């Protein structure tokens, strides 16, 4: 095993060790100490899980890999969210926490994760184009280089994911209208997730995966050692997450009460920040290495997972915990779901044309940050209306892409060509500005940023 990999794994295990000691010994400490101990353990385990899930793609192909990785990657978030939903079945005090983590992580992913990847990808693309143009013998190319990288272009295969996200985003508006998440509705969302996995499995190509960071170190090992390492990381990380989920969830509520901070705020934002951090870091690493389309594609798939499997599982967990045939929502949760649904529709409206410009990306981040200052109910609904109006504007601008996107989940998949591969590039420049000497795709700006 590479020394660099051993060092990373040991660091994660050291971070998780206090939580394991506290849980096994049963030692009672202040809620804030529990919060940091068990929260740190979940973050560390999430990193181990992310590395193993990425490296597993080397040995598992097709729909099985997609299903396995989709379930494993969201385990930290699911563990906390489903705990609250399960407890709400027997303790009404947990009802308003049941969907808080989901709405927080959902908005964090789109409002922070998507813009982060786009901005990093375009900065890398501008730097690459500047270097290519500086070495070009064509006199006019230098003037167009750095300005060319203004939009991240997604691969054609992303249209199916966006299509599923559009369908789920529209269905999400039924939740605030119903005032609850019925079991039948949850089952329907889970069936959509199953259909998504099936379609994704059909669309999976045979191209060689690219790996970064710890996953690349794992992949460099011999086949037997790699598989043993991946399985061991899966088992250890899953054990730490399941071991820490309940005390971390309880510590969030108790810490809010002891510190005088709204417990709902901690559940909605601190828990998702812990569970999503590894995914954000890995996506950022992909973007830094010239694979921005692949990075944003991963985050889009995570949105599909959240709106389908996660939301669909909440009423089932509530029922299993002794609750009724639906997860009831209070006024605050209805408000949060409305805000989250309108943000989702705005996000997909922006990328319908498979281009993610930097200005809308910053706009998404700005609207996401604004919600922390608009805390009253009427203000939240006004913010939801603003997002809905902007979504309509982008839908009008991208009206020619609406039908292809809506039909993408139902069309027969076609193989992705080399020119369309999201792993091939990070920015697209005009044909006249490309490297005339036929350099590599990454050097010639194949990352697809529009002029």
Automatic annotation (TrEMBL):
Signal peptide positions on this chain: none
GO biological process: transmembrane transport
Transmembrane residue ranges: 33-52, 64-86, 106-125, 158-175, 181-198, 228-245, 280-301, 307-327, 339-358, 378-397
DNA-binding keyword on record: no
Domain Sodium/calcium exchanger membrane region: 36-198, 230-371
Topology within the bilayer: Multi-pass membrane protein
Name of this chain's protein: Sodium/calcium exchanger membrane region
Taxonomic placement: Bacteria, Bacillati, Actinomycetota, Actinomycetes, Micrococcales
């Amino acid at each position: 095993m590479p020394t660099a990999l051993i060092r990373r794994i040991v660091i994660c295990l050291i971070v998780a060790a206090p939580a394991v000691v506290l849980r096994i010994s049963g030692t009672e400490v202040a809620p804030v100490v529990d919060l940091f101990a068990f929260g740190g353990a979940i973050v560390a385990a999430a990193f181990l899980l992310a590395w193993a899930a990425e490296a597993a793609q080397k040995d598992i192909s097709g729909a099985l890999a997609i299903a396995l990785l989709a379930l494993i990657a969201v385990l930290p978030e699911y563990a906390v969210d489903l705990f609250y939903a399960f407890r709400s079945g027997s303790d009404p005090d947990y009802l308003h926490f049941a969907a808080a983590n989901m709405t927080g992580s959902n908005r964090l992913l789109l409002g922070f994760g998507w813009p982060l990847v786009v901005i990093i990808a375009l900065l890398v693309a501008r730097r690459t184009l500047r270097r290519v143009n500086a070495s070009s013998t064509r006199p006019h190319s230098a003037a167009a280089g750095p300005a060319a990288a203004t939009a991240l272009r997604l691969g054609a295969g992303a249209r199916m994911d966006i299509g599923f996200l559009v369908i789920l985003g529209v269905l999400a508006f039924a939740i605030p209208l119903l005032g609850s998440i019925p079991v039948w509705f949850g089952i329907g969302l889970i069936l959509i997730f199953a259909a998504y996995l099936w379609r994704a499995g059909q669309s999976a190509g045979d191209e060689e995966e690219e790996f970064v960071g710890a996953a690349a170190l794992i992949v460099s090992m011999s086949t037997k050692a790699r598989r043993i390492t991946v399985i061991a990381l899966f088992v250890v990380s899953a054990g730490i997450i399941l071991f820490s989920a309940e005390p971390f969830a309880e510590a969030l509520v108790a810490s809010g009460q002891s510190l005088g901070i709204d417990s709902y705020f901690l559940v909605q934002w601190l828990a998702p920040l812990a569970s999503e951090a590894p995914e954000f870091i890995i996506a950022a690493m992909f973007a830094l290495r010239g694979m921005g389309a692949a990075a944003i594609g991963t985050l889009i798939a995570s949105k599909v997972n959240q709106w389908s499997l996660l939301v669909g599982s909440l009423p089932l967990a509530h029922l299993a915990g002794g609750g009724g045939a639906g997860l009831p929502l209070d006024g605050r949760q209805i408000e949060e779901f409305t805000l989250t649904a309108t943000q989702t529709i705005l996000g997909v409206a922006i990328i319908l044309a498979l281009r993610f410009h930097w200005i809308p990306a910053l706009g998404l981040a700005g609207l996401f940050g604004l919600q922390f200052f608009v805390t009253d109910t009427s203000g939240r609904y006004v913010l939801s209306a603003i997002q809905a109006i902007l979504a309509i504007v982008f839908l009008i601008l991208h009206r020619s892409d609406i039908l292809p996107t809506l039909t993408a989940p139902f069309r027969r998949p076609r193989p992705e060509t080399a020119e369309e591969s999201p792993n091939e590039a990070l920015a697209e420049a005009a044909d006249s500005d490309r490297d005339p000497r036929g350099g590599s795709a990454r050097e010639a700006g194949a990352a697809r940023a529009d002029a």
